Amino acid sequence: xxxxxxxxxxxxxxxxxxxxxxxxxxxxxxxxxxxxxxxxxxxxxxxxxxxxxxxxxxxxxxxxxxxxxxxxxxxxxxxxxxxxxxxxxxxxxxxxxxxxxxxxxxxxxxxxxxxxxxxxxxxxxxxxxxxxxxxxxxxxxxxxxxxxxxxxxxxxxxxxxxxxxxxxxxxxxxxxxxxxxxxxxxxxxxxxxxxxxxxxxxxxxxxxxxxxxxxxxxxxxxxxxxxxxxxxxxxxxxxxxxxxxxxxxxxxxxxxxxxxxxxxxxxxxxxxxxxxxxxxxxxxxxxxxxxxxxxxxxxxxxxxxxxxxxxxxxxxxxxxxxxxxxxxxxxxxxxxxxxxxxxxxxxxxxxxxxxxxxxxxxxxxxxxxxxxxxxxxxxxxxxxxxxxxxxxxxxxxxxxxxxxxxxxxxxxxxxxxxxxxxxxxxxxxxxxxxxxxxxxxxx
Length: 443
Fold this sequence. Notes:
CATH architecture of the largest domain: 2-Layer Sandwich
Oligomer: single chain
Largest sheet: 6 strands, antiparallel
Low-confidence stretches: 1-10, 15-28, 293-297
Number of domains: 3
Structural class: alpha+beta
Mean pLDDT: 86
Distance between the termini: 23 Å
CATH class of the largest domain: Alpha Beta
Radius of gyration: 25 Å
Helix content: 25-40%
Shape: globular
């Protein structure tokens, strides 16, 4: 896996500058920013503050210098919030840049095209403040590639329904996460998908007229049905749907019932509503408007994850999921074969584990690996806990044999206490029998 790709190198340097800038804010440096994403208004507000006194600028002659410093520093100061924006459930904007889907120059242009106020000064002339406003629609436009809206297949079932003026999905509060035994709030994204409880895709960006998807988006976000943007999008006679859950690594996708899916799809007028993007998702205030500087991933995160995914794909390694984790990157190994009720790995698995070790070896030397063993729950909690720990240890042993430094590895076991599926079928039990390896980056 090479890291000499120009785009990846540019991302390293750029994110390093962002990290330096973000740290400067905490160390009392001369310039800082408070960033706010408002998904309801579809805008990013950045309040830039410069310590004029510490910068050595003499007023009033230095007013233009103040503005130029602020404008020059905008990309560094705004990038933490821009890179954190979810394009969809599978990636953030930062990951899209590192993969080459969009370029840094496109992001720079959007930042430069933002609306800026004239800097104003405190009464004592020690500080100056400027507000920069960016439109989320400008970021969204660069991801719209389709030229026509495709027509989804008609459902096999049918129920009585009618044409509505729009569609409102109420996703407020904590909702069940599909496939997991937890509840979380929905997270706004530029292009969320709507799915059914059976995981049919009800709605996604390519179903929307491209000019609509680019300019006004495929969904609007609102706090209540009475908000102006909700009324203007969904009209005065909307189909109201209560979300049954959320889905996706980043919790961006609302899940609706099969019946609500049919209420939409069994009427041609409602399918036209989807093509027109007349969909509103109701969210809580703390997710519709977020402020501050988000936690910045380690500067290697974006392209290391992509390199790992590509390596596993190129080498035909199956049964391994790669996902973002709050601590780093998690590889979930499904269906790994052990001798029954033991921690002895079958030799047929050695090649797969060796390839996983090779993928992990691409990370920095300071990266730690936490290996977690998980079992299905069959009513023997003590035995399951011990077995899961021993299996994690066995995987660690194979990684060490493949060249990973043992000092970088930690192991633990959770038995059947953290299922990802009900233990009601052999297929679901197989999903719960897994090993997770999390690569934890040093700060």
